[in-house]
């Protein structure tokens, strides 16, 4: 059976080449009631978002927000723009740090907590807004193998 020229067949898409149809999703992160790790001021939070590889399940840093000085309730301005593939489970991880220096090395900063979700959870939540509590002890730290278009977490 022939297909009209403007219709794509499934065989035309190559997932390795990234040609599966995707929708761009903008993720905004806000946090509430973060831990205060600073002695004489409030924390200076930074959020790092990780994506998990489909094949090897390794976590890869996707991006970082800006650092916001002296707040336990940051509304980060920098957004993460990710491709949403409807048929795939896309795991996300958000790690929060209290930045103590100009060093890009995350081990030089205080860990505040982390949250896990899938991109589908964000997109499918009411108003595309998802709240997740932070776990204070890292299940996965940087280097080891939350909200959406308006997502939020109780920390992410």
TrEMBL record:
Coiled coil: none
GO molecular function: calcium-dependent phospholipid binding
InterPro entries per record: C2_dom, C2_domain_sf, Copine
Gene Ontology cellular-component terms listed: plasma membrane
Single GO BP term: cellular response to calcium ion
Annotated region described as Disordered, given as residue ranges: 128-156
UniProt xrefs under Pfam families: C2 (PF00168)
Alphabetical UniProt keywords: Differentiation, Phosphoprotein
UniProt superkingdom: Eukaryota
Signal peptide range in chain numbering: none
Membrane is among the record's keywords: no
Ranges annotated as biased composition (Basic and acidic residues): 129-139
Function: Probable calcium-dependent phospholipid-binding protein that may play a role in calcium-mediated intracellular processes. Plays a role in dendrite formation by melanocytes.
Protein name, UniProt field: Copine-5-like
Native organism: Pteropus vampyrus
